[in-house]
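Structure ticket #2291
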Amino acid sequence: MEDKFWKDRRVFVTGATGFIGSWLVRELLKHGAYVVVLVRDIDPQSELYRSGDIGRVHVVSGSLEDFLTLQRAIVEHETTTVFHLGAQTLVEVAYRFPLQTFESNIRGTYNLLEACRIHRDIVQQIVIASSDKAYGEKTSLPYTEDMSLEGRYPYDVSKSCTDLIAQSYYYTYNMPVAIARCGNVYGGGDLNWSRIVPGTIRSFLFKQNPIIRSDGTYRRDYIYVKDVVRAYMLLAQKLDLPEVQGQAFNFSTEKPLAVLEIVSIIQKLMNAYDLEPKILNYAKAEIRDQFLCSKKAREVLNWQPQFDIEAGITETIDWYRKFFESKYGA
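Resolution: structure written out below.
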C-alpha cells in the first residue's frame, strides 16, 4: 500500500460504523489519510467506537437518504476520495422489511453519486461496494464480471441497482467510479450473529451448538476483511487507469465452501468437536450457490488474497476471544 498516495488525502467513507467500514477507516488512518465518516446511529459496539478511531476522524451526522447531508460532507471537507460502503447488509432484514433496504441501498447510492457529480471538481475517485448478490442466480458459476446483474430477492435487487447506478454515472457522466464485488466477508468486529462465521464462533466460545439457518449445503465465497480493505484501497489508487475506470472487479479466494464446511473449519480450529451444528433449514430469499472468479482483479490490479481460510479464521477467532473477555471478563 502506498503511504504517499494516502498521506493527508481527504477521504469520505459511508458505512464507517459497519464491520468492513471500521476496518477500512483504521487502515486509512494508519496510512495518514484525513478521514470523514457518515454516522446515522451511534453504535458503541461498532469497532469504530470500540477502537477509539471515532476520535481520530471527522464525523458528519446523517443518513444516506439525505442528499444535502452527503453534499455537505463532500463540500465542507473537500473529500477527493469516496468509499461507499453504507448499506443495509442483512438478507433476512431485507426480506422482512424491503422498503428500508431499498431506501438506504438504492436511494443512498444515487444520492451519493449525484453529490459527487455536482462536485466533480472536488471528487477524484469513487469506490462502490457491491456484492456477489448483484449477479442473482446463475446456472453457470463462478460469476465473472461480464455476466448480467439479475438480482431477484430484495437484498440482491438492491445490490444489482447499486451496481447499475454506479455504472450509469460512469457511462453517462464519465464519473471516476470503480465497483468492488465480494462474497461473504468475515473477520473480527462483525457482531451480526446471524452470519455463519461470527455466529458459529460465538456459539463455540459459549459451549453451544451453532445454528445453521439453511440445510448446510449452500456454497459461498469466504474472504477475510483485511483482503477486502486492501482491494478497496487498491481500486482507489488505480482509478486513474483507463482499464479500471467504470469497471467492476470480483474479489475472491476462489475456493468456495459449503456452510457445513466453514463450520467444520471453525470447529477444528477451536477444538469444539463435541458441539455439532443444529440445522434449522428455514433460510428464505437465499441463492443456493454463489462464488466468484477473480482473474480480472489479478491481471488488471495485481491483487490476490493474502489470507487463506484457516489463517483468516484463526485471526478472527482470536479477535472474538479477546472481545468476549473484555466484555464479560471471562
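Closing remark: The first helix runs from residue 3 to 6.
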